[in-house]
Amino acid sequence: MEIIKNAKMKEYSNMKVGGTAKELIFIDDKNELKEILRTRNNIFLLGNGTNTLINDGNLDISFLSLKRLKKITVEEKIENTKKEDSYDLVRVEAGLDLDDLIDFMEKNDYSGLENITGIPGSVGGLVNMNGGAYGTEIFDCIEEVEVCKNDGEIVKIKTTDLNFKYRTTEIKENKWIVISALFKFGFGFDKEASQDKKNQREVKHPLDLPNLGSTFKNPEGTFAAKLISDADLKGYRVGDVVVSPKHPNFVTNVGNATFNDVISVIEHVKEVVFEKFGVKLETEIIILK
């Protein structure tokens, strides 16, 4: 493992916001987790930093990264007389970027996750929160998740024995660490669908500016972006944080944003949307104070 003392977390945040951490730990082997959990009290699993807002100042936190765990292994091939009934079971480690998993699927003609192409983040981060888009969730293709529990025990849990729903899981609620996931992939990669979703993100999302992806969960029956837009909050600004005119469920850093700037924007959006429509928006991002 590698340990960086007094790590500048702004450098590891997609929002480019964050203070100085006590340490940032990169592990090279899952078995190192037990020692880390035994010897540290305040641990935060960072992932790719794509959906976590990190506080400014000095942070008495041991940040943990699994980004070096990125192996992909085909564990089993199931061949049936009909090709459409055939599938492979593929073990993917948590540190792999989703983009790299989609590339692997395309090369091997695997299907199932084309609709989530382009979501920024690691496989582990998406599994933790049951990430998804356009009607597809990552758990649609998962058979089993390997996790490290709070006492350092590493176990494999079948999806049928896990609680998960829209944008949350039992893993997230218990603060377990995702080590790997076993995917069940059928065949017939839909390149057109995958490219379409990637193009839509590039056109609709403010990818040219630091951001944390979708700020709020979609309330039942509607979209957070529509509510924010209908509340005339596009372009609302505090300091260097702006509600994106391109996609109002994104808040962007247009300069030297601070944690408090982001929080002020989020709270204002919540307040105005509730006043106008009676809807309480819930954040999808993780806020680390």
UniProtKB/TrEMBL annotation:
Q: Which PROSITE patterns does this one have?
A: FAD_PCMH
EC number assigned by the record: 1.3.1.98
Which GO terms are recorded in the biological process aspect for this UniProt protein?
cell division; cell wall organization; peptidoglycan biosynthetic process; regulation of cell shape
Can you tell me which residues the record assigns to a coiled coil? none
Enumerate the GO terms in the molecular function aspect: FAD binding; UDP-N-acetylmuramate dehydrogenase activity
Q: Where is the active site?
A: R167, S214, E284
Top-level class of the enzyme under EC nomenclature: oxidoreductase
Where it sits in the cell: the answer is: Cytoplasm
| Keyword RNA-binding tagged | no
**Residues of the signal sequence?**
none
Which reaction does this chain catalyze? UDP-N-acetyl-alpha-D-muramate + NADP(+) = UDP-N-acetyl-3-O-(1-carboxyvinyl)-alpha-D-glucosamine + NADPH + H(+)
Q: Which domain of life is it from?
A: Bacteria
**Pathway given in the UniProt record:** Cell wall biogenesis; peptidoglycan biosynthesis
Q: Which GO terms describe its cellular component?
A: cytosol
Q: Which cofactor does it need?
A: FAD
Record-annotated FAD-binding PCMH-type domain positions: 17-210
Sorted keywords for this record are: Cell cycle, Cell division, Cell shape, Cell wall biogenesis/degradation, Cytoplasm, FAD, Flavoprotein, NADP, Oxidoreductase, Peptidoglycan synthesis
Its family remark reads:
Belongs to the MurB family.
**PANTHER family attached to this UniProt entry:** UDP-N-ACETYLENOLPYRUVOYLGLUCOSAMINE REDUCTASE
Relate the protein's function as given in its record: Cell wall formation.
* Name of the featured protein: UDP-N-acetylenolpyruvoylglucosamine reductase
Instruction: Please report the organism this UniProt entry assigns to the protein.
Output: Leptotrichia buccalis (strain ATCC 14201 / DSM 1135 / JCM 12969 / NCTC 10249 / C-1013-b)
Q: What is the lineage of its organism?
A: Bacteria, Fusobacteriati, Fusobacteriota, Fusobacteriia, Fusobacteriales
